[in-house]
Amino acid sequence: MDESNDVVLYRSHIEQLCQRSRALLQAMQEQLLVIHAGHALHQIFAEQSLPFVPSALFRQWLAIGESEHAWIITSQDAPAQLFLLQEHFDPAWQHSSWWPLFEVTLLRSAHEIERYLPQPLAHSIYLGPHPDIAKALGFELINPELAIHYFQYHRATKTDYELFCLRQAGVIAQRGLQQVHDRFYQGASGLDIYLGYLKAIGCAYLNDPVQVAFNEQIGQLSPMRMSAQPLPEKDSYSLWFNGTAEFRGYRVKIGRCFGFRRDYYQQLVGSLEQLLLDLTDELRQGRPLSDISRRYRHHLAKWLVEQELIQGNIQQCLNSGLLDIVSPQPVCEFVGLSINEPGAQLRDPTGSDILAQPSDKDVRILGSRQVIAFNAGIFVNPNRLELLKKSSWVDLINWPQIDMLQHYGGITMTDTGIVTDDGIERITA
Description:
- This protein is an alpha+beta fold.
- The protein is 35% helix and 18% strand.
- The protein has helices at 5-28, 56-61, 131-137, 145-155, 160-185, 190-201, 264-282, 289-306, 314-319, 322-326, 382-389, 399-406; strands at 32-36, 42-43, 48-49, 71-75, 81-85, 103-107, 124-127, 141-142, 211-214, 238-247, 250-259, 332-334, 371-379, 410-419, 424-426.
- A six-stranded mixed beta sheet has the order 6-5-4-1-7-8, with helices on both faces.
- It is elongated, with a radius of gyration of 24 Å.
């Protein structure tokens, strides 16, 4: 990190994480919080390890690539301690802005951490991806639900530093999407579009799935095997790109559909973008996610009627099961350290609502400083159309229009935004 304003933001960020940790320890009447970055998992019989990704809670404190077997330890009264494996140590880290914020110790081996843990560990909390290691070290409190829910709840509300990182990720995502746009209209293959996106965002690979789909493939709603062969121009109706971008461990989502020609499909793209803008106006603090989902369904039903894809009225569309078939994706997801963060399922930091019924899953109330990805669109494929034809609302469908849309596979888009006091700040638009 450069010595600039974000250094000040990062220092304040660490102070807030320390305050959260102390509050949790006090509430649970424990003495030590031990956060484990984890280690790479070896694939049996494949003779290789999966790419290492530090645990989300560790990344919230420190996002460095070489943090395998690293630990952060906090207590009620001492500065945060950071333990790094010596073989991964980079001397340049000593000149980084984060170095003075921790008491840093280099471990000669992964097992040496045991020397620095108090014995017994009866009042120490382990948070990490390897309960087997925690048990071997002597921890009794291993990923307790109260501690997990506490951090998941609070990490939904971003610090100034986290908002800085997410805005930077948004800039990167927009740069990548521009490359997707340009390559599509140059007639590139799906693989070329995907590789162009990776190059534009400065990434060798993405941990999250990326969708690059043409025409009827869009309706499948799942990652496709990307061909290196470009489509013949006569087949280049539509493209769906849906991906992520990251900055210092924080991720945003971005997705768009593009039409190759100025035709009916491009008109739908423009009108759906307006629907997304209308939805954005609904995303204000104080509203539960479940309410946002209901309002989105109303917007989508209105859009289907206005575009003459539905022959009935808005209320008929809402009362039918049509929207569940053509628009199955969630309208809002919390993003940040991961895509679709679990904080949306928690009304309070104790996790008292984690066992809510599926229909009441999105219990979180939107609040300032939360970051959400919001989706809008429909998917059309033969299997979904068969469900529609066999349904009781078959007469609601304008079948000539739907049949025309089959060639394009559907239309959908995704943006990421920050909830502010006044509304939504779109950071990927």
